[in-house]
């Protein structure tokens, strides 16, 4: 029945999800074959309503799932039990800080940093994700600011030769661009394909970001 649950999540069928959970309450703790909790899987697919329906049944979340869904109390509880767990990886290869940053949970990001989480810990995924790259990709300015001020590497190179500045340029995110550049981000970097910050911005129609980059030395 767990496969039926994941099929319903993928289809965005919240009625079916609720029916399955009612028939088998244990499905609230179901995980994919790769070990990803059902609520987290729903969030990855942008199905927040379905994630909320699963979470309403109070599943037993591990640290990585709690960080992803934004359950601050559960994160605290688990870190108190095992402080070293902040350095561990989820089944899909990400540390708790990176997951919280990617989802925009600023309170959890601040807490994990206060407990000694490494702001530059690299994920085990092919793109070599960090908390900052995740926050920038999703446009979470407040989280990006917290990370940068805690020492996150604004010049970090990851999958495809991207940097946080290049990612922000591609997204046309002026606020994050200003943050990164004011903390040493390099506007002159290029991807492995030779794309510049300006070219990435223009590809997506972000003319304002491209002009801002020109004014700050990008070519």
The overall average pLDDT, rounded, is: 96
End-to-end separation in angstroms reads 55 Å
- Could you say which structural class the secondary elements and strand pairing correspond to? mainly alpha
Annotation, overall tally of beta strands = 0
- Rg, Cα atoms, Å: 19 Å
Percent in helix = 40-55%
Stretches where pLDDT is under 50 for at least 5 consecutive residues are: none
Helix and strand succession?
A: HHHHHHHHHHHHHH
Overall geometric form: globular
Number of helices: 14
Please describe the biggest sheet, giving its number of strands, its sense, and whether it closes into a barrel: none
- Share of residues in strands: under 5%
Q: Can you describe what's shown?
A:
The protein is an all-alpha fold. Helices cover 54% and strands 0% of the residues. It contains 14 helices and no strands. The protein is globular. The model has no long low-confidence stretch (mean pLDDT 96).
Q: Which SSEs are present, and which pair or pack?
A:
Layout lengths: L1 H10 L2 H10 L14 H7 L3 H8 L7 H7 L2 H10 L14 H8 L2 H9 L16 H7 L3 H9 L14 H8 L2 H9 L14 H7 L3 H9 L4
Helix pairs in contact: 1-2, 2-4, 3-4, 5-6, 5-7, 7-8, 7-9, 9-10, 9-11, 10-12, 11-12, 11-13, 13-14
In short:
It is built from 14 helices and no strands. With 219 residues, it is mainly α. Helix 2 runs parallel beside helix 4, helix 7 packs parallel to helix 9 and helix 9 packs parallel to helix 11.
């Amino acid at each position: 029945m767990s496969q039926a649950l994941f099929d319903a999540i993928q289809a965005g069928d919240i009625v079916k999800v609720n029916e399955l959970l009612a028939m088998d309450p244990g499905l609230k703790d179901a995980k994919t074959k790769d070990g990803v909790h059902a609520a987290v899987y729903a969030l990855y697919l942008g199905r927040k309503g379905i994630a909320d329906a699963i979470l309403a049944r109070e599943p037993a979340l591990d640290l990585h799932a709690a960080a992803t869904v934004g359950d601050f109390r559960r994160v605290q509880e688990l870190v108190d039990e095992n402080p070293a767990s902040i350095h561990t990886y989820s089944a899909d290869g990400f540390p708790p800080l990176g997951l919280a940053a990617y989802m925009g949970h600023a309170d959890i990001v601040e807490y994990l940093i206060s407990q000694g989480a490494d702001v530059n810990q690299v994920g085990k995924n092919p793109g070599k994700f960090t908390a900052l790259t995740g926050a920038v990709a999703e446009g979470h300015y407040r989280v990006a600011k917290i990370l940068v001020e805690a020492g996150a590497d604004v010049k970090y190179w990851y999958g495809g030769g991207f940097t946080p500045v290049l990612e922000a340029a591609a997204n046309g995110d002026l606020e994050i661009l200003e943050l990164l550049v004011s903390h040493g981000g390099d506007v002159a970097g290029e991807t492995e394909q030779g794309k510049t910050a300006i070219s990435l911005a223009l590809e997506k129609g972000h003319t304002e970001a491209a002009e801002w980059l020109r004014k700050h030395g990008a070519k």
